[in-house]
């Protein structure tokens, strides 16, 4: 991998490290402050593990007031701040830099209030995604966004990256399921946005916060929407002779106006890897697989499936297999949701996250495989096809620097391909460090300058998660 | 009504009126510029007709480039700009001021591209809301947000106010159905946000634009989501003995996790007025009416209705009446959608737009009627109950200044009541002029200062729709 670059560290901050650590120690209890080198190491990277830097210190506050005190102090001292949820970012969103204080919200993990009448839950922002659904499941409800990392990732991180998941085709991503937040601004001010209602007058700052990658403040509480669980749900497998045909079938299903809960795609490489891991009963004699999940009453599911099968037949579908039991359904999803982990067992990989208009799925799949061939690499495609959110996993050997560089170059070409096809750089993983240089492929300088002006309205001194999202050159040029 | 107040007009702008008009004349064709006093009068107000001011000039451009040229010129000359769609704002969002140039997008009303494969339509921003559904209806699609003014209101206005409508309970409001915009910034820069995809990396400026009440730029094109029409739809009437009981029934339906397409509420006053106008077959022997619309296959609708009727019975529902034909269904909706117009035939009124958490519906309805009684006025309640978006129409005589002032004071009390119940000032009409002074009841000064900083990132000179949304005092204090 090419060497990681950050904005130049603040020399003044590095010079007064001891003083800053003492200052922080006055603001939070002892067990909320990490300053020993060996204890800082776990915070040096996130799930984008190719890059790492040890931060100046880590604070793990227990209350919003503590977050506020720490932010105010860092603001006064000119210390950069890197917010951290569970550290599951695939784009390097939580990777620190050596002059930064990491503020992690993992200790703030209580469910504060569940209100079934209004179908909302208020939670501390360090609660894990799956915990919310677990809490309300017995009463027949769930929280919809379901990233594959949902067992570990926090709501704060979900909000920072506007996370999606397999079932977001029907239910929308985080921004569609978030009603309010309590957050701490860079100067320590505590603000509340939204609430239990849908729209609060004034600008939609809540929507702006969602997906702002930790650059507008630290979220400490969130109010989210709960949905009623469907009467039933049934995943069905459709096997095809080629990826392009499977892609065309997805486009036709959506064009017909049918919205299943999920349409997930796997190519041959992904099927092999996931089946070996999860024994999900995936058909092995096909080149591409769609997992289509329908839900509702039995009648509804039957009606929707009839339409989908009719469309699949026009694409010469080779295998159609309905899950016959709850256990079979669980295995099908286990295979899909563990795709990244299962891939990690057979090879190192980087995961791209481009999106494309559905009409372009076939074209982009076939061009992707040409790019991969040209670099002499392997790819496993496993992604949210229904909303055009591709996840090519580019396989390589992390100990072979030449191959690593090829993988990175191929990934960048694939993301440019997505943008050129009318899509965009990231569906749900965020820009982080990984894609910041490609932002100029997606946006004009004019667009990015406007985004930077909005950022400055929250963080004029550019101290929040400073080396992320924007091309470093643009920021450095401005600083001159 | 109390006298309208605006930010102090720019004396320099008023002094060089002739020069500004000549400058504008060089930028657009003759028939795109309105400068004669008598031709300016139609632009002096919008649907919030109590207040009016004649603007300096009106420009009705035909292209994005013309909008850009006019904006650049106004920016250079320091001239305030007031964007205008169809002028249907109920909150005074399009009311001009005497030193402002109104830029109306009514001439830009073409549908540019319909893409069924990706279920999107790209339109010029002056197209009317209903036009889009009309265009795609034969192919089985529709555009979901449906404000009562949908025959007249433009997509640009819908985006500015983040408009909703009766069917938004299921389908979401404008922000949930908007994929991209082309817009012109205050300095004339043309930017594009979003596209055919869902999330583009970087901050969610598209979401921020939606509901920004014309203060961030002028929208000239929009890409919106198309949805497949349901197999069938059936409105059903439920009559109750009191408003409070009907409100409690709504809360129970939603708490059960059932999401019909629409749950509309009418009290006795509204029923009488609407039935006299539309002959919709509303029951006349009840105190409150719910219009609940379900959709899907016949089986689905039957199943959902069974559940809803069971809940209604626990609230001693007095009448249940299913529409028996498409004509009957149309009449039911005609009655509801013409509620404002029908009310206008019997009295002058102002329409409030507060929202409340559903669990508070009964409480707020009963407190509302106490407030109205205290002022010796009459009220007709007709609103989107399913998403807690109340529309009390306060009836009064516009020629009686004492009564007019009472109506305004009662309205303000009702909005404060909504906020205090955990709701907010506006569900879909926007803040505009009407509610700007109440913003300090909903938000803290800290919150509003942050919103003003974000605004300044788009319009540092405060020239876009300048007297709206924020309490005038906050802006004036800052200017000192």
From TrEMBL, chains A, B:
A single MF term (Gene Ontology): oxidoreductase activity
InterPro entries for this protein: FAD-bd_oxidored_4_C, FAD-bd_PCMH, FAD-bd_PCMH-like_sf, FAD-bd_PCMH_sub2, FAD-linked_Oxase-like_C, FAD-linked_OxidoTrans_Type4, Oxid_FAD_bind_N, Vanillyl_alc_oxidase_C-sub2
Domain (FAD-binding PCMH-type): residue spans on this chain: 51-229
Cofactor(s) the protein needs: FAD
The protein's name in its UniProt record: FAD-binding protein
Entry superkingdom: Bacteria
Keywords associated with the record: FAD, Flavoprotein, Oxidoreductase
């Amino acid at each position: 991998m090419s060497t990681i670059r950050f904005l130049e560290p603040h020399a003044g901050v590095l010079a007064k490290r001891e003083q800053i650590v003492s200052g922080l120690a006055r603001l939070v209890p002892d067990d909320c402050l990490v300053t020993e080198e060996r204890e800082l190491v776990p915070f040096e990277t996130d799930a984008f593990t190719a890059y790492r830097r040890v931060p100046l210190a880590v604070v793990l506050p227990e209350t919003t007031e503590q977050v506020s005190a720490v932010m105010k102090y860092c603001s006064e001292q000119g210390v950069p701040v890197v917010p951290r949820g569970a550290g599951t970012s695939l784009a390097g969103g939580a990777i620190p830099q050596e002059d930064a204080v990491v503020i992690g919200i993992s200790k703030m993990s209580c469910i504060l209030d569940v209100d079934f009448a209004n179908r909302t839950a208020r939670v501390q922002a360090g609660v894990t995604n799956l915990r919310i659904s677990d809490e309300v499941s017995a009463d027949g409800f769930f929280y919809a966004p379901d990233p594959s990392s949902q067992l570990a990732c926090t709501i704060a991180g979900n909000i920072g990256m506007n996370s999606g998941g397999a079932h977001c085709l029907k239910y929308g991503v985080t921004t569609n399921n978030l009603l309010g937040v309590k957050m701490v601004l860079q100067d320590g001010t505590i603000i509340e946005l939204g609430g239990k209602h849908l729209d609060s007058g004034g600008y939609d700052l809540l929507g702006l916060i969602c997906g702002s990658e930790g650059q507008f403040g630290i979220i400490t509480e969130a109010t989210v929407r709960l949905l009623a669980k469907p009467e039933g749900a049934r995943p069905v497998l459709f096997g095809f002779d080629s990826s392009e045909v499977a892609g065309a079938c997805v486009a036709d299903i959506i064009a017909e106006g049918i919205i299943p809960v999920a349409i997930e795609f796997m190519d041959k490489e992904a099927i092999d890897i996931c089946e070996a891991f999860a024994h999900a009963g995936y058909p092995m004699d096909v080149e591409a697989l769609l997992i289509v999940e329908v839900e509702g009453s039995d009648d509804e599911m039957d009606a929707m499936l009839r339409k989908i099968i009719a469309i699949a037949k026009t694409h010469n579908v080779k295998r159609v297999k309905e899950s016959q039991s709850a256990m079979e359904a669980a295995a099908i999803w286990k295979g899909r949701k563990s795709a990244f982990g299962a891939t990690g067992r057979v090879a190192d990989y980087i995961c791209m996250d481009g999106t494309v208009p559905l009409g372009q799925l076939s074209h982009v799949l076939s061009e992707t495989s040409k790019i991969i061939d040209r670099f002499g690499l392997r790819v496993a495609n496993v992604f949210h096809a229904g909303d055009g959110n591709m996840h090519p996993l580019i396989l390589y050997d992390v100990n072979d620097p030449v191959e690593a560089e090829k993988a990175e170059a191929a990934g960048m070409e694939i993301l440019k391909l997505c943008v050129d096809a009318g899509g965009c750089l990231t569906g749900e993983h965020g820009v982080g460090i990984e894609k910041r240089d490609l932002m100029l492929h997606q946006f004009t300088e004019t667009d990015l300058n406007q985004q930077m002006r909005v950022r400055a309205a929250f963080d004029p001194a550019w101290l929040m998660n400073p080396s992320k999202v924007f091309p470093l050159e643009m920021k450095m040029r401005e600083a001159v």
